[in-house]
Amino acid sequence: MDEVLLRPEQVRAEDIDPHYRWNRALPALGPMGVDFEERVDFQRLHRYRLGRVRQALDASKLGALLCFDVNNIRYVTSTKIGEWERDKLCRFALLARGGEPILWDFGSAAVHHRLYVPWLRPELCKAGLVGLRGTVPPAFGLMRRHAEEIAGLLREAGVADMPLGVDIIEPPMMFELERAGLKVADGQQVMLDAREIKSIDEIALLNRAAAMVDGVYQLISEELKPGVREADIVAMATKFLYEHGSDDVEAINAISGERCNPHPHNFTDRMIRPGDQAFFDVLQAFMGYRTCYYRTFNVGRATPAQHDAYKQCRDWLDRSIELIRPGVTTDTVASVWPRADEFGFPDEMSAFGLQFGHGLGLALHERPIISRLVSLEHPLEIKEGMVFALETYCPASDGYSAARIEEEVVVTDTGCRVISLFPAEQLPIANRY
To answer: How far apart (Å, rounded) are the C-alpha atoms in residues 25 and 41?
Structure first.
């Protein structure tokens, strides 16, 4: 078992700084393991992610990271116990400088890890509980017990005098850590530093996730017709995704007709009608790696106003994609998008998320965030190996229709590759009359 433990000295430089082979097509492989070609190397993925966190931690002023965010826990420990735990704050992981990950998990999950997770030392897979969002009152003492345990572990690691980085936390747990003598600091930025550059295995998983959504849009193009409800499309798409290996259909936006403007970001039981403009966003994960992938359709026919909105939306998106390459900063990308008042909104806060870019990975929103609201004054550099989505929105002149398009891109050494491949260069007309 010891040969697969992720000790610091076993993480290789090439695992943290992989050499991409951009001269080849990105793989969109099936979920099966095979013996006749290389697919995703999960042990390499584990080494890369933990190596990136150690590298980011060493470059920071923190002595250790304490993670309650389930995406960060998965990145550090390569463990996951289901989507039900996403909002419970019931699991946590600790990584100190020079040390190995320590995981406190929900009840029997810790025992399961000792049997089936050989990359973590069995004695470092512990059962733990801090209170399930306060339903076990802090006065019961669970938080105090774990805070004192963590403080002791940090003293043993020789980093108790350095700040402890925390990503998200219940206030009573933070107070207990401070009472135990620890200085709590922001650890989320360090984790985002670690996660912003994707390995070739992460890119393969993101590409596979996007391929699944390609299939969803083929299904939608065939099923989008009068009499079908927004909710019906969501149900069909969800079924397709789970049948093809999704481990979390986070949300599917289905917006049609008069609901398109302004964008409500949800779906209803509205029935699709002839001539509707309708747009959809599929947010789901394959092996944890997420999609955000909008497409707009018209049902049967389209008006000149709807065609014009789509063309403008596509133009704004294409202009931003053309700029993506290493070294470009996010203010340059955001600057080609319209001001909020140019497409009907009072200010950039009200329009946030409509002309938008955001990193993709184990979370829906990672680095970089690209928006006129934040990027013009606080730009970030775009780097090789980033994966993010770019999305634009254009209301139609009829006052209620609107177009919404989104492409997912991988930043290469010289530009970018689009991995959301369902055709969107021109307005698709589903079930044309």
So the answer is: 17
Residue 36 token pair: 């006749």
Higher-confidence position of 339 and 13: 339
Domain ranges of the chain: 2-195, 200-430
Phi first, then psi: give them for residue 171, nearest 5 degrees: -50, -45
**Distance from C-alpha of 207 to C-alpha of 167, rounded to nearest angstrom:** 28
Q: What's the mean pLDDT when you consider all of the chain?
A: 95
- Dist CA 360 CA 213 (whole Å): 15
- Lowest-pLDDT range of 35-49, 173-187, 222-236, 369-383: 35-49
Report domain 2-195's class: alpha beta
Cα 305 → chain centroid:
34
Instruction: Of 101, 107, 58, 62, give the one whose Cα is nearest residue 78.
Output: 101
Q: Cα–Cα distance between 157 and 25 in angstroms, integer?
A: 44
Task: Give the CATH number of domain 200-430.
Answer: 3.90.230.10
* Residue 294 near residue 391 (C-beta atoms within 8 A): yes
pLDDT at 21: 85
User: What are the tens digits of pLDDT across the range 282-320?
Assistant: 999 999 999 999 999 999 999 999 999 999 999 999 999
Fold match, 2-195 / 200-430: no
Distance CA 280, CA 219 (A): 12
- DSSP secondary structure of 313-359: HHHHHHHHHHH-STT-BHHHHHTTSPPGGGGT-SSTTTTTTTSEEEE
Do residues 242 and 252 touch, judged by C-beta distance below 8 A? no
Report d(CA 17, CA 24) in Å as an integer: 18
Whether the pTM exceeds 0.85: the reply is yes
> Could you give the angle at the alpha carbon of 246 between the alpha carbons of 242 and 250, nearest 5°?
95
For CA atoms 336, 337, 341, 347, the dihedral sign is negative
The mean pLDDT of 52-78, rounded to a whole number, is: 98
